[in-house]
Design goal:
This protein is mostly helical and 287 residues long. The protein has helices at residues 3-29, 32-35, 42-66, 71-81, 89-96, 100-125, 133-157, 159-194, 200-218, 224-235, 239-248, 254-286.
């Protein structure tokens, strides 16, 4: 096995572990009634689905038409547009002084929506590849819904065990996230450098800026604690499902994986400072 194959295997393992463990952590930390508090809010649910799976992908699709992107980079951007809500959204929410219950609702809602929307829409939008809806749905079911359900069930049946194991799961998720970032840079660093001048980075920046600004300004009537969750959820991307989707599509070009790897790095670089800035600004307003 060559070095490039080893690094890519490490990326798949770390991205999968980070997503699985982070979603398991969410399931372990909240009661079901707290987890669904945002889902019971019709406006919050509507905004999450609208920006996450309708307007967000539509903006990405328009960018692929307007910018001179290669087909392979365009496919990567479209995949990234369908995976809102990083598994570490709760961590971002705490930094932004948002409502953690709503971050859990956002992840739960987008997790179910991914399984429904992506297999239906993505095969119609990506170019040059042949993939069935079930090929995409299988990894999403295992990676996204399974850990959430395990965590929720464990907390309901064995509360003491859930509280005892959650700190370890949280630490392991953080280690896996760091490993995913490191392996992304190691795997696609040269490809990312070579992508300069290809509009790959520009397309990602424009996409993130447009969906983030659009979500923030269109949700001005929401309380800050909910508005920050919506905005950070739409900005951040769930790298595990993105990688799983890409791997499930046969004969996908390396440029598509480069775009996904670059997208992971860029959204992390944008979401954490934004969360910190929002939390600091909100904290000053409360004083």
């Amino acid at each position: 096995m060559e070095l490039g194959e080893i690094l890519f295997l490490a990326l798949k393992i770390f991205a999968t572990a980070a997503t699985f463990l982070s979603l398991l952590d969410i399931g372990l930390q909240l009661e079901m009634k707290e987890t669904i508090v945002g889902i019971r809010n019709p406006r919050f649910t509507l905004f999450t689905l609208f920006w996450g799976f309708i307007l967000g992908p539509a903006i990405a699709y328009l960018l692929t038409l307007v910018l001179p992107l290669s087909t392979h980079y365009a496919n990567g951007l479209l995949i990234m547009s369908f995976v809102p809500g990083a598994a570490y959204l709760a961590m971002l929410t705490e930094r932004a002084k948002g409502d953690v219950r709503y971050s859990a609702s956002f992840v739960l809602l987008t997790s179910f929506a991914m399984v429904f929307f992506i297999p239906l829409a993505l095969p119609l939008m990506i170019s040059g590849v042949s993939v069935t809806s079930w090929d995409i749905a299988k990894p999403l079911l295992m990676l996204v819904l399974l850990p959430l359900l395990i965590g929720i069930f464990t907390r309901k049946k064995w509360l003491d065990s859930a509280n005892r194991w959650r700190p370890l799961v949280n630490k392991l998720a953080s280690v896996a996230l760091f490993g995913a970032l490191a392996s992304t840079i190691a795997s696609f660093g040269s490809g990312i450098v070579l992508s300069a001048g290809s509009f790959a980075l520009a397309s990602l920046l424009l996409f993130y800026l447009l969906v983030t600004a659009g979500t923030w300004y269109s949700s001005y009537k929401f309380p800050f604690e909910q508005r920050s969750v919506l905005t950070l959820g739409i900005l951040s991307r769930n790298s595990g499902p993105a990688v799983a989707i890409a791997v499930s599509i046969p004969d996908l070009a390396s440029e598509t994986f480069v775009l996904i790897g670059l997208g992971i790095i860029v959204q992390v670089a944008m979401s954490f400072p934004l969360a910190k800035r929002g939390g600091r600004k909100h904290g000053k307003q409360l004083k």
